[in-house]
Amino acid sequence: FAGEISHAAGADIMVDALPTVCRNHGKAQFVFAGDGPLKGELEARVRHMGLGQRCRFTGHLASRNFEALLLASDFVVIPARTWQDEGVARMAISIGRPVVTTRQSGINCIKHGENGLVTFDNPGSIVWGIQEMLSNPLKGSLLRIAARKHAGESLSFETITARHYMHYELILKNIIPSY
Q: I want to staple 36 with a disulfide (CB 3.0 to 4.6 A). Which of 6, 71, 101, 167 is the partner?
């Protein structure tokens, strides 16, 4: 999560989604970057849910530290209830990280299935988006390919491998009949 830790930015929606996500993905770790009126309350809720060791609240980060955090992340979640500035989403895309956001956020630079996923502003929908990113590594790779393409980065060996894997999988699905 990156942004103001507030109701409008959906930080509480993200926290509400965590028990289900963590139950299904035992190794997932989450970082909440930013400050805001709900920060203390959400930190306490996370600890009360027994997820304190899997969640970090960093507070405000300097630009270079925030960029380092984005580089270390697999994806960014912006579960906003209202319009949000596209800056964080654009920064994530520029370094090849897909974004899970909501329709309500008004973040138009995210194209569903290309450089991220667009969900609704409720915990169930956010759970779906996060689990899609965590459970389907091929889809995550393809989203990273699109994000890199939009960022103008060259393709890595990992990206080329993911594309070949996807094409072989499609070929096998069309040739081998399902029973």
A: 6
Q: Residue 76 contacts by C-beta under 8 Å, 6 or more apart in sequence? A: 1, 2, 70, 88, 89, 92, 97, 98, 99, 100
Between strands 30-33 and 99-102, the pairing is unpaired
The neighbouring-strand residues paired with 165 are none
0.70 surpassed by pTM: yes
pLDDT in tens, 55-69: 999 999 998 899 889
